[in-house]
Structures are given as structure tokens and as C-alpha cells.
Write a structure and sequence with these properties.
The chain is mainly α.
Length: 72
């Protein structure tokens, strides 16, 4: 085992092992999503998709205001 892998394993032993295991399996299986959404996040995403299907998008002015708010 390389030094880097040994360090990673040592950290995993002291942290969220299931989360790290999911990420490792996703990388090995070449999955596209490493994030597990909560039920609330899934519901929010579904709402956003439904709004997009109805053509409910932010206006140019609303987008500009958000960018300005965050100094972007």
C-alpha cells in the first residue's frame, strides 16, 4: 500500500466510513453522482424541474440582481 493510501485509510477509520465507501465505489464503478440527496433536496430539485418545464425562468433583471448581490 502506498503512503498516500495508508494515510487515506487512517483518516477513513476515524471519519464517516459509509460516505467514503460510497464515494470509492462510485469512482470505481464510474458513476456520475457522488452526492446522495436528502428527501428535501430531491423535492426541491423536482420543483425546479417542473418550473423549467412550465417555462418559469428568472428574468435577466432577476439574474443580474443575484449576481450583483454576490459581487459577481
Amino acid at each position: 500500500m502506498t503512503d498516500l493510501l495508508e494515510e487515506a485509510v487512517a483518516r477513513v477509520r476515524s471519519q464517516a466510513q459509509d460516505d467514503v465507501a460510497r464515494a470509492m465505489l462510485a469512482v470505481i464503478d464510474d458513476e456520475r453522482s457522488l452526492v446522495v440527496l436528502s428527501p428535501e433536496e430531491k423535492a426541491s430539485f423536482a420543483t425546479s424541474l417542473a418550473q423549467a418545464e412550465r417555462g418559469e425562468f428568472a428574468s435577466d433583471e432577476e439574474v443580474a440582481a443575484i449576481w450583483a448581490k454576490h459581487d459577481l
